[in-house]
Design brief:
The protein has about 325 residues and is an alpha/beta fold. It folds into 2 domains: about 150 residues, Nitrogenase molybdenum iron protein domain (Rossmann fold), CATH 3.40.50; about 130 residues, Nitrogenase molybdenum iron protein domain (Rossmann fold, 3-Layer(aba) Sandwich). It contains 11 helices and 11 strands. Strands 6, 7, 8, 9, 10 and 11 form a 6-stranded mixed β-sheet that branches. Helix 2 crosses helix 5 and helix 5 packs antiparallel against helix 6.
Length: about 325
C-alpha cells in the first residue's frame, strides 16, 4: 500500500513540475513576443522624422502620426489596412457604402465625417485633432487643392489618381512610411504581389486573349461610362491576359458610353459595375438600344454584374476582382 502511495506521489510531483515548466515556457514565449512587438513599434517610432514622396513635393513628417485624416476613399482603404480605426480621426461618407468600400464594417468605429478631396474646407480640417492629412487630388482639382492646402499647417501627403495596380502598391509603401507602419505595408505588398502571381498562373497559355469591356457609372446618376486608360479596371483586364475592348476605338480615358461605340468594339465579355446597388438597372437605356442584342457578349450570355469596388476602385479587393475575371473569361469557375 505504501509502495503504491509512494508511486502516486512521485508521479504527481513529476506532473506538477512539468506543468510548472510548461507554464514558465509559455509565459516566456508571450513575454518574448510582446517584447518583439514593442521593439518593432519602437523601431517604427525611431524612424522619424521621415521624408516621403508626394504628388506635389517631398513631405517631412517629424513624429509618428497618431491622428490620421485620409480625405480620399482610396487612401482611406490603404490606411485601414495598416492601422486600427481608432487612429483615424474622420473619413468621407463613401466608406460606409459596402458597394464602394472594402472597409464599410469599420465605418461605425470612426464617428467623424469629412468632405471629400473634391471640396476641401480648411476650417473643417482644422476642427479635427489631426497629425497628418492624406488625399488623392482628383483630376481637374489640382489648382484649387493646392490653394486650399497651403492654408493648412499640417504634413499633407498628396497622391495622383491610382490608375494601375502598381500605383496602388507604390502608394501603400508611401502611406506605410508616412504613418509609421512600414512593416505592415511591406507585408501587405508581398501578399498582394503573391496573390496576383497565383491568379496569373491560372491563365491558360494557349488561349487567345479575349476582349473585355467594363461599363460603370462614375458617380450616382452619371449614366454608364466606358472605363478606359487611367482607371484601374483597364490595368486589371491586361493583368488577366485579356485585351481592353476600348483599345478597338482608341479610347484615351473613360468616356460616357454610346451604343455606336459599344457595337464597334463588340467585346467578348462585358462587366456591368453596380455603383448604387441598383444592379444592371442603370444600363437599361443602353441595353434597350437596337443592336445591343447582336453583341457577341450578349449572344453568348457573357455579361456579369459586380460591385464597383472589385474592378473600378483601387483597394485590396480589386485582387479578388482580378481573380473573378480570370475564372470567368477562361471558364475556370467550378
Amino acid at each position: 500500500m505504501r509502495a503504491k502511495f509512494l508511486i502516486y506521489s512521485i508521479v504527481a510531483t513529476f506532473v506538477f513540475i512539468v506543468g510548472c515548466q510548461a507554464t514558465d515556457e509559455e509565459e516566456e514565449t508571450v513575454a518574448a513576443e510582446e517584447g518583439q512587438t514593442e521593439e518593432g513599434n519602437a523601431a517604427e517610432d525611431d524612424s522619424f522624422p521621415v521624408t516621403v514622396e508626394s504628388a506635389d513635393e517631398p513631405v517631412e513628417i517629424q513624429e509618428k502620426p497618431e491622428h490620421i485624416l485620409p480625405l480620399s476613399l482610396d487612401v482611406t482603404e490603404i490606411v485601414l489596412e495598416l492601422v486600427e480605426p481608432s487612429r483615424v480621426v474622420a473619413v468621407t461618407e463613401s466608406l460606409e457604402d459596402p458597394i464602394l468600400s472594402t472597409h464599410a464594417d469599420k465605418a461605425d468605429e470612426i464617428p467623424n465625417r469629412v468632405s471629400s478631396a473634391v471640396h476641401i474646407d480648411p476650417e473643417e480640417i482644422l476642427s479635427f485633432d489631426t497629425d497628418i492629412m492624406l488625399l488623392t487630388k482628383m483630376h481637374g482639382q489640382e489648382e484649387d487643392a493646392n490653394k486650399v492646402l497651403s492654408e493648412i499647417d499640417l504634413p499633407i501627403v498628396t497622391f495622383d489618381t491610382m490608375g494601375t495596380v502598381e500605383a496602388f502598391i507604390d502608394n501603400i509603401e508611401i502611406v506605410g512610411k508616412a504613418i509609421g507602419e512600414t512593416e505592415k505595408a511591406s507585408a501587405l505588398i508581398d501578399e498582394i504581389t503573391s496573390d496576383i502571381e497565383d491568379i496569373q498562373a491560372k491563365i491558360p497559355a494557349d488561349e487567345e486573349a479575349p476582349s473585355v469591356l467594363v461599363l460603370s457609372e462614375v458617380g450616382p446618376g452619371t449614366g454608364p461610362f466606358m472605363m478606359g486608360p487611367g482607371n484601374v479596371s483597364y490595368d486589371l483586364i491586361q493583368k488577366a491576359g485579356a485585351t481592353p475592348a476600348v483599345d478597338e476605338i482608341n479610347l484615351e480615358s473613360s468616356t460616357p458610353a454610346s451604343i455606336e461605340q459599344v457595337l464597334k468594339m463588340d467585346p467578348d465579355y462585358i462587366f456591368l459595375l453596380d455603383f448604387v446597388g441598383a444592379g444592371d438597372e442603370v444600363f437599361d437605356e443602353l441595353m434597350e438600344n437596337p443592336g445591343w442584342d447582336s453583341l457577341e457578349a450578349v449572344q453568348n450570355d457573357r455579361l456579369q454584374v459586380l460591385d464597383v469596388k472589385y474592378l473600378m476602385n483601387p483597394n485590396v479587393q480589386m485582387i479578388e476582382g482580378l481573380d473573378r475575371m480570370v475564372d470567368w473569361i477562361y471558364e475556370l469557375e467550378e
